[in-house]
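Meet the record:
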Amino acid sequence: MPVPDLASKLIPEPRRLTLDEGHFALGGKPVSVTVPSGPEHEACREVLRATLRIAGATAPGGAREAQGNSFTLGEGAPLPALPAEGVAEQG
């Protein structure tokens, strides 16, 4: 997909988008993984296994079972707690 087409689909619109060849090597770092169970999700599990293998990462203890049809790769960034008061129904 050309860069202008890709950028137009992102929200918020990026100020700059650079596509390039390459990879993100994890060099044997442990990564937590959750994957959906069942035969209908075998392709998802295989893609995640291949991704970890190519990146050089490991999933200590294997993948945990995810709820529903979602998967996660890594823990994500820590976020502050959402405000409990003073929030309008629509922001």
Summary: Residues 42-55 form the longest helix (14 residues). The longest strand covers residues 33-35. Strands lie at 33-35, 64-65, 72-73.
